[in-house]
């Protein structure tokens, strides 16, 4: 009996010694820098967002959050890099809408937008606006549709490149409004906006962050936003759905994902800390100034959103026969 009691006491003592260590191991994340991979070059709105978010997350997590720009191949390069990374929470991706659409457009994409990643949170939606050249004799969406139907195939619309969100949104507008416009792809917003301002083109759907200065200067006319609800960034602008294209909805997004297999507790920690950062009034104001609407949903909600988003654009891509260049 004495031996049994001694063994029991020894086991309890060992358990008491081990338990705190196990608990501290679980609580150790993060214990080294986290690398946030960005599929865009430095200097753009997404880069500003990632660095502002990374700075605040660093303070909350107690470890540096290092933003690494890995542009190329229509965002596929960065996405593939993170999909192959060790699923330990130390390599995460600031993904964009192209995470889901790239595999539908490009043949050599090796990752699966749903199976290869663990969604953390949809950080924000990028406010996109339908803008037209002031030289075009239209003041609203209904007038644009009427003008285009009266001049089929004569009006051109610009995008930031084949397969980009601005291209897909233009094709969605064409199909839902029953209009015919010629797609002209550019390498980025800058050259496209220059030609739009110059009157070489008539129409473009573009991010508010890049088109906003031209709208304020009166060099472009904004007709509406692409989201289902009006944006907090430009509440005076109606949605396309309420302006003559019922049911139109496009929400270009930015969100954090980790490699598939990342432990749920790490995903949950990253989500909770990011959500707290997004509640910061200073962050809200900065995002609004960049033409971004904060989301901050749960991993489950973000996962469901990604699947719906892929389904929507898969139909557009198939109907328009869009192929990567």
UniProtKB/TrEMBL annotation:
Top-level taxon of the source organism: Bacteria
InterPro entries, sorted: BUG, Bug_dom1
Keyword annotations from UniProtKB, A to Z: Signal
Signal peptide (residue range): 1-25
Keyword Signal: yes
CDD domains for this protein: PBP2_Bug27 (cd13578)
The keyword Signal appears for this protein: yes
Matching Pfam families: TctC (PF03401)
Family recorded in the similarity comment: Belongs to the UPF0065 (bug) family.
Name of this protein: Tripartite tricarboxylate transporter substrate binding protein
């Amino acid at each position: 009996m004495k031996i049994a009691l001694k063994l029991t006491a020894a086991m309890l003592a060992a358990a008491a010694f081990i338990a705190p260590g196990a608990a501290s191991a679980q609580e150790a994340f993060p214990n080294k820098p986290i690398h946030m991979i960005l599929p865009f070059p430095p200097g753009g709105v997404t880069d500003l967002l990632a660095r502002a978010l990374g700075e605040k997350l660093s303070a909350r997590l107690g470890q540096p959050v290092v933003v690494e720009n890995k542009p190329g191949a229509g965002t596929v390069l960065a996405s593939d890099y993170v999909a192959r990374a060790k699923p330990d929470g130390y390599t995460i991706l600031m993904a964009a809408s192209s995470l889901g659409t790239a595999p539908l457009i490009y043949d050599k994409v090796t990752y699966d937008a749903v199976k290869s990643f663990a969604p953390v949170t949809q950080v924000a939606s990028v406010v996109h606006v339908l803008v037209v050249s002031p030289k075009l004799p239209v003041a609203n969406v209904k007038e644009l549709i009427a003008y285009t139907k009266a001049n089929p195939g004569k009006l051109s619309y610009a995008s930031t490149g084949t397969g980009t969100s601005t291209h897909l949104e233009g094709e969605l507008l064409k199909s839902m409004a029953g209009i015919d416009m010629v797609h002209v792809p550019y390498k980025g917003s800058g050259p496209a906006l220059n030609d739009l301002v110059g009157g070489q083109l008539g129409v473009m759907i573009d991010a508010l962050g890049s088109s906003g200065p031209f709208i304020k200067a009166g060099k472009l006319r904004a007709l509406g936003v692409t989201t289902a609800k009006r944006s907090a960034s430009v509440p005076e602008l109606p949605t396309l759905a309420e302006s003559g294209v019922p049911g139109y909805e496009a929400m270009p997004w930015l969100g954090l994902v980790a490699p598939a297999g990342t432990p749920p507790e790490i995903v949950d920690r990253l989500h909770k800390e990011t959500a707290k950062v997004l509640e910061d009034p200073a962050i809200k104001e900065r995002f609004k100034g960049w033409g971004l609407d904060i989301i901050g949903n749960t991993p489950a909600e973000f996962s469901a959103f990604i699947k719906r988003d892929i389904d929507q654009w898969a139909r557009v891509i198939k109907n328009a026969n869009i192929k990567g260049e």
